[in-house]
Amino acid sequence: GLARQASAQELPPDQLVEQAAQDLFRLAQGQQRKGLEHVGQVAQESMEALLDRLEGRGTTGLKVGFSRLDAITQGFQPGNLIILAARPGIGKTALALNWLLRSADSAQRAYAAFFSLEMSREEVFTRILAAKASINMKAVQAGAFDDAVQAKLLQARDELLQLPIFINDQAAITVREITAMVDRHLSQANQRLDLLIVDYLQLMSSPPDSRGAKQSEAVRIGEISRGFKLLAKDRGIPVVVLSQLNREVEHRQGGRPQLSDLRDSGAIEQDADMVMFIHRKMRPVVEGEPEDRSAELVIAKHRNGPTAIVPLYFEAEFARYRELERTTDEV
Description:
Order of helices and strands: HHHHEHEHHHEHEHHEHHEEEE
Shape: globular
Radius of gyration: 21 Å
């Protein structure tokens, strides 16, 4: 089939190679299209998972180190597409990197990959380092640090080196390219992937031969979100994709973001198993008054569980969020 496609020149060579790699990966994993399965076969696996869950054992998803969020979600589930959306400057990258670091730096030792389309890998590393070391990186970058700060940074760096965190900062990347990279990673000995985060959706590229590239932005983004859902489902990992919100949300004073505020929302909302928003009131800073750092993580769509609001607190200087001690409101 590959030789035929190559001779017919249906696709560019790099896409042919990626497609062949994906087909080989599926073969190696025995993931060829399944036939019809009797309900008895399905029941056996499903009941085991269900009973484990009811008895508090086993196969809940990946914990991201925020206790209330983890309790609501039962951890991020394999195969799920999770959208984290906010306006620019609210701190969605900070929260996503907190999840990455905490899930990797915990007893479960998650293998976590971060695709950064906006920031360089140095910037990503600096952010993780700041969160890990509890050090104000802006002060460090301005040269305001002493031996004690340097010792803390070096210790945090040494601890980070032990963690199974993987970073890619290729701009203008397609879902197909990300899938090929994931497959290459999974095909190596002893490599696995428990969490994949992409920052962010609207910066993703489409292959020139795709339908979306020739049509509207909404169609293009829909194609990309479907691609991510298939990647999550086929490879059995939770995929977190960051997304921007429409400008309309800025005109609703004090209002929480809602599903219709997702940019090109129809397809994203449809494909996602969970949609979360970060909401901060962002009141103007008044001289002499402390800055309002409270935030909310609004779980607006949750296919397999409740919607809820988790109160957060933003520590901007450490690029870090933490949960506020308060009861959860149901939305």
